[in-house]
Amino acid sequence: MTIKTGIFWFVRGEMIADRYDYIFEEQKQGDFIDYPHSHFAMWDKLSKNRFPYADFATYPRGRLLFDVKRGQYLLYLDRCITEEETKRLLDFYDLGKEKYILSRDEHYSCDKCCKL
Ligand SMILES: [Zn+2]
After folding, report:
1. How would you write the pLDDT of the chain (116 residues) with one tens digit per residue?
2. Rounded to the nearest whole angstrom, what is the distance from the C-alpha of residue 19 to the centroid of ligand 1?
3. What is the bridge-based pairing of β-strands 61-67 and 32-33?
4. Domain that residue 27 falls in
């Protein structure tokens, strides 16, 4: 069984996303299986420095992880991420046939959220 994890941003409609897959080994896992890097650590690499006036927290972002106890994916989203963008994420991570829940978490707040 493969467990998919990832982080992503939406920059003016463009999806910037990374995915990291684990092979599920039940005995070795904790409560959550999470993408191994932070948004902070990956922003420069994944955005390829194309947005020099932005940092990792400027644009709407989120994270995909797996809740081992509940046996389902957790997709954390900035509240600015639209339904259409959410669909693109479900495609990108191939979650159509998986169990998942969407969660709008204050932790993932972009500049726009923070000004409200
Ligand atoms: Zn936002």
Report:
1. 899 999 999 999 999 999 999 987 765 668 999 999 999 999 999 999 899 899 999 999 999 999 999 999 999 999 999 999 999 999 999 999 999 999 998 889 999 998 86
2. 21
3. antiparallel
4. 2-115
From ligand 1's centre to the CA of 61, what distance in Å?
8
Environment class of 23 (CB within 10 Å of its CB; exposed 0-12, middle 13-18, buried 19+): exposed
Ligand 1 centroid – CA 81 distance (Å): 7
| Ligand 1 (single-atom ion) residues, CB below 5 Å | 60, 78, 80, 110, 112-113
Coil, helix or strand at residue 57: coil
Indicate the number of domains in the chain: 1
